[in-house]
TrEMBL record:
Domain Carboxymuconolactone decarboxylase-like: 41-101
This protein's record includes keyword Oxidoreductase: yes
Name used for this protein in its record: Peroxidase-related enzyme
Species in which this protein is naturally found: Phototrophicus methaneseepsis
Keyword Cell cycle belongs to the record: no
InterPro entries (alphabetical): AhpD-like, CMD-like, Uncharacterised_peroxidase-rel
Length: 203
């Protein structure tokens, strides 16, 4: 359970009501991360706009690898489960490779440039002030441009905001992730344990 109370659907008004209704219509449920932002829906909308502006410059595969690397270093179980699910459903990886990526991406049959990107992302998250020109030049050896490196960095640092907000206030991963196999769920748990809430009976 989150450390702060969300605005319930029956009391929602204005922007958060619109966001709740859109999520219910598009996804069939209201995710707990959205409930967490219910007192400040304008912040969620700004975050969503920022994320879209970053993601449009990244292929799905690269974006998800960056996000998983960042979420793992941030110890964010919610983001690991969410983006692991997206990555798996995209068809870019199978379950065995996704488990390997979550456990140790260095031994997950990724391309050398992908491993280098994930190494860079984890250093950005862990010690951004320790990143050097050599780290950036290493990425350029794999053909990444300045624009590519900026996009990767933006995706990583934006994830830091979102993951830390969810974990600081203990947003629970949604019940739908219980549909993942136990092996995959276990591999994607990075920080807080995952104990799914009981599915809501309201619509």
């Amino acid at each position: 359970m989150a450390f702060i109370e969300a605005i319930p659907e029956e009391e929602a008004a204005g922007k958060i009501k619109d966001l709740y209704e859109a999520s219910q219509e598009n996804a069939g449920y209201i995710p707990n991360y959205l409930r967490l932002f219910s007192h400040r829906p304008e912040v969620y909308e700004a975050w969503d706009a920022l994320l879209k502006s970053i993601r449009k410059h990244l292929r799905l595969r690269r974006y998800e690898l960056v996000t998983l690397a960042a979420a793992k270093e941030l110890d964010c179980t919610y983001c690991m489960l969410a983006h692991g699910s997206v990555f798996l459903n995209s068809g870019e990886v199978d379950e065995a490779q996704l488990i390997a990526i979550a456990q140790d991406y260095h031994n997950a049959q990724l391309a050398p440039d992908e491993v280098a990107i994930m190494d860079y992302v984890q250093k950005v998250i862990a010690h951004a002030s320790a990143v050097t020109q050599a780290d950036v030049d290493n990425l350029k050896q794999f053909g990444l441009s300045d624009e590519d490196i900026l996009d990767i960095t933006l995706a990583a640092t934006a994830r830091s905001f979102f993951s830390k907000t969810l974990d600081a206030l203990s947003a629970e991963p949604d019940a739908k992730y219980m549909q993942l196999t136990p092996e995959l769920r276990e591999a994607l748990i990075a920080g807080r344990p995952y104990v799914a809430e009981k599915p809501s009976t309201t619509t």
